[in-house]
Amino acid sequence: MRITKLEHAAVVIEEGGRTLFIDPGKFTRPVAADASTSAVVITHLHDDHWTPEQVERIRTAKTGVPIFGPAGVVAAAAAYGIDVTPVEAGDAVSVDGFELRFFGGEHAVIHRSIPVIDNVGVLVNERFYYGGDSFAAPTGVAVEVLAVPAGAPWMKIAEAMDYVEAVAPSQSFPTHEMLLSDAGKALSNARIAWSTEQGGGTFRALTPGDSIEL
User: Fold this and answer.
1) Whole-angstrom Cα Rg for the chain
2) 20 by DSSP, 3-state: which?
3) How many other C-beta atoms are found inside a 10 Å radius of the C-beta of residue 21?
4) What is the per-residue pLDDT for 33?
């Protein structure tokens, strides 16, 4: 399995000649999809995690590619004529060599004035976990690689650190950091690294285009 970090919240996973895209949003450069694309997972409806333009690039490269997301994404995508298969916490899907299990259910609270939307975290092939905009940890799983939110209006670094310690992954890397300066990235990387090391894991300070091979 190869896990490649893209800009901000997007991740690409490759295994056995097949490709899975997760959360290609507005802060991510146009994705380079091709016929190897097996599926797309969108964790929630915010446009830093998906845009219709990014999804159309993938659908153009692979006609009929299945897209999975919670109810809010299903409704938002329908307005653009994009079909999304609804998933929620507790669901499991097998698609073209990728085993997907979904956790969580709700986006983290941003502020009491902003309604809480649905959000699913996804576990890929029992090895890689991506929680979207939530610190809901997967249960009963030994996570090999964890994508850790590094900065957002809905979080503080102490929450990310607690999350990493709860999951105790073998490896971790930062995601959701486009709003951070270089100084902010260095700070969050140091804290996430410390938390990963508490469980015996290794932190990888990936930047867009970098990969982890399993």
Assistant:
1) 16
2) strand
3) 26
4) 93
For residue 192, which amino acid is it? I
**Which burial class, exposed, middle or buried, applies to 156 when counting CB atoms under 10 A from its CB (0-12, 13-18, 19+)?**
exposed
Nearest one of 169, 177, 156 to 195, comparing CA atoms: 169
Among 194, 160, 165, residue whose Cα is nearest residue 175 = 160
Mean pLDDT of the chain: 97
145 in Cβ contact with 170 (< 8 Å): yes
**CA angle 146-97-33, nearest 5°?**
75
Name residue 11's amino acid: V
- Helix crossing, 182-198 with 157-167: angle to 10°? 30
Distance from C-alpha of 157 to C-alpha of 29, rounded to nearest angstrom:
26
As a whole number, mean pLDDT of residues 73-78 equals: 98
| Reported confidence tier of residue 71, pLDDT bands at 50, 70, 90 | very high
Residue 168 per-residue DSSP state:
-
Residues 82, 67: contact at Cβ < 8 Å? yes
